[in-house]
Amino acid sequence: MQESRCAQHGLVLLGCGKMGSAMLAGWLARGLPATSVWVNDPHPSAWLSAQGVHLNEDLPSDPAVVLVAVKPQMMADALPTLKAMGNGATIFVSVAAGTTIDYFEKTLGADTPVVRAMPNTPAAISQGITAIVANAKAGTAGLDEAEVLLSAVGQVVRLETEEQIDAVTGVSGSGPAYVFHMIETMAAAGEAQGLPAALAMQLAKATVAGAGALALQSDEDPSQLRVNVTSPNGTTQAALEVLMDAETGFPALLSSAVKAATDRSKELARG
Fold first, then answer.
1. Which residues of 243-267 are buried (b: 16+ CB within 10 A; e: fewer)?
2. pTM of the predicted model as reported, rounded to 2 decimal places
3. What pLDDT, in 10s, does the model give residues 162-183?
4. The CATH number of the domain where 133 resides is what?
5. Residue 248: which CATH number?
């Protein structure tokens, strides 16, 4: 496995917040030795301090991978400190939103292998999905390396161009928040119809989680699954006539929401 290269040469994790911690937990669970991991984080959690990794120590000169998980606003200060690792065999994998491959190349050197990734928050329970794209220097080998690492927290898909990552941000990067808000509003609607608040929330959470699991595991696509549970002139059809309205329902709302998130992702990339 590619992980053996990390075990031999070392893996550097720059930033270890929620996403970095989720990935680190996945790597350690899959057998990557803690002694092969260097973490640079100014405010380490108690959990991180107990993992046995090299914490805020001098970094190896040529690690196999540097995974950049700092907040975008910290990038200008953090990334230049790793310039000595650029233009070499070290692969830089970035999960920082709005930071382009070109930015990495300008900061670290044009011959630096770079993979840009867009994960989402269900990675915290190993149920995420991450889209990746690489520069020419990283190539297929770099994508393979990144996929092995990122698959520790869920599915991984490969993009054809870096430009697609903005749309990915709009759909899956920001998407969990849309679903969380749907749970909120479903629960509130149930409460408005006479259910106790706690029961309405339990029903909403379980319904969304169960429907998502069914959609993921079923051989039928979501449109057919929708048809399967919609009896003619029944309760579900009554609700869907509201939700599927072309002007006020999900089609218009979600199209506008995904476009807004995609546009904002483009703005962040332009600085």
1. eeeeeeeeeeeeeebbeebbebbbe
2. 0.91
3. 999 999 999 999 999 999 999 9
4. 3.40.50.720
5. 1.10.3730.10
